[in-house]
UniProtKB/TrEMBL annotation:
PANTHER family: 2-NITROPROPANE DIOXYGENASE (PTHR32332), 2-NITROPROPANE DIOXYGENASE-LIKE PROTEIN (PTHR32332:SF20). This is Inosine monophosphate dehydrogenase. It comes from the Eukaryota. SUPFAM superfamilies: Inosine monophosphate dehydrogenase (IMPDH) (SSF51412). InterPro entries: Aldolase_TIM, NMO. The keyword Oxidoreductase applies. It comes from Trametes coccinea (strain BRFM310) (Pycnoporus coccineus). GO terms for molecular function: nitronate monooxygenase activity. Keywords: Flavoprotein, FMN, Oxidoreductase. It holds the Pfam family NMO.
Length: 333
């Protein structure tokens, strides 16, 4: 029996799983494959070099799937910021009605999307930021625990406590992000009050993922110990794969007096990171990965992956229901 949650009803999807926005990874072939498999595929706007290129990617995705998909727009700290407004308008004009937002000061973007009748899922790493986004009128929150790849925030709060706190504090639906790869994880997220999960690293390691097969193989070979945090001293913490470049960045940060971004800019350039995915060399640059690598043991199609997650979650939920003993009275307090 399919799982029905607030997320599946809100988005019109079958499986309560969202493919998170990922730079260089969130492209039409993956987004369409996730949506075709029953989840919500996400195009990453900033993977495209311009708003017009995003228009083309949306049209390509629409050729590949008849199901809902969304667009991620992440607001990044930058001296020369991208044309966020241009990306947002292009996506709305192309008929996209589901958006994943993340980053600092999302208010204007959220206001624009809501004025256009769109559904907004906003990513947060703290309850404080989640409540702020709730006040801005978002429809759903993506709660990122300390386990997540990319930017886990600066407060180091693990998913179990963060999700339970969300159940206490939030009035709108939320999904769980960070450390999810299978049906057991989905069932646990639902038990903690979430209405679904967001997965990034797990979708990197699928047949339809656009990254080099050697990187997919590296993910399968790796464990939960193979990530490291960089930019901690710059208060812009990021969880990335623990390779030579990442450890060089950490060493620079640990020098007396620390490091400025200028000291590490060349090491962490986005173009070097892109080469990792294109050339299949895991050590050529910085690349994002979560500790969930410890749970990833294969590289299936998105259809096989989501069908398996759906089945496993149903089995776990059934096992939990079987723990209830009919007719047995609860202990009196």
């Amino acid at each position: 029996m399919p799982l029905e949650t607030k997320l599946t009803k809100l988005l019109g999807i079958r499986v309560p799983v969202v493919q998170g926005g990922m730079q260089w990874v969130g492209v039409p072939q993956l987004a369409a494959a996730v949506s075709n498999a029953g989840g919500l595929g996400i195009l990453t706007a900033l993977t495209q070099p311009s708003p017009d290129a995003l228009r083309h990617a949306i049209r390509e995705t629409r050729k590949l799937t008849k199901y809902p998909f969304g667009v991620n727009i992440t607001l990044l700290p930058s001296i020369n910021p991208p044309d966020y407004e241009g990306y947002a308008r292009a996506a709305v004009e192309e008929g996209v009605r589901i958006f994943e937002t993340a980053g600092n000061n999302p208010g204007p973007l959220i206001k624009f999307f809501k004025s256009q009748g769109c559904i907004v899922i906003h990513k947060c790493t703290t309850i404080r930021h989640a409540k702020s986004a709730e006040r801005l009128g978002v429809d759903c929150l993506s709660i990122d625990g300390f386990e997540c790849a990319g930017h886990p925030g600066e407060e180091d709060i693990g998913g179990i406590v963060l999700l339970a706190r969300a159940a206490q504090e939030l009035k709108i639906p939320y999904i769980a992000s960070g450390g999810f790869a299978d049906g057991r994880g989905l069932a646990s997220a639902l038990a903690l009050g979430a209405c679904g999960v967001n997965m990034g690293t797990r979708f990197m390691c699928t047949v339809e993922s656009p990254i080099h097969q050697k990187i997919k193989d590296k993910i399968v070979e790796s464990t939960e110990k193979d990530t490291v945090h960089i930019f901690r001293t710059l208060h812009n913490t990021a969880r990335v794969y623990k390779n030579a470049v990442a450890q060089q960045v950490v060493a620079l940060e640990r020098r007396p007096g620390g490091a400025k971004f200028e000291d590490v800019r060349d090491l962490v350039s986005g173009q070097r990171g892109r080469l990792v995915y294109e050339k299949g060399d895991p050590d050529v640059g910085i690349w994002t990965a979560g500790i969930v690598m410890g749970l990833i043991k294969d590289c299936p199609t998105c259809e096989v992956l989501l069908s398996r997650i759906e089945r496993e979650a149903e089995e776990v939920i059934g096992e939990l229901q079987a723990l209830k003993v009919p007719g047995k009275e609860r202990a009196k307090l």
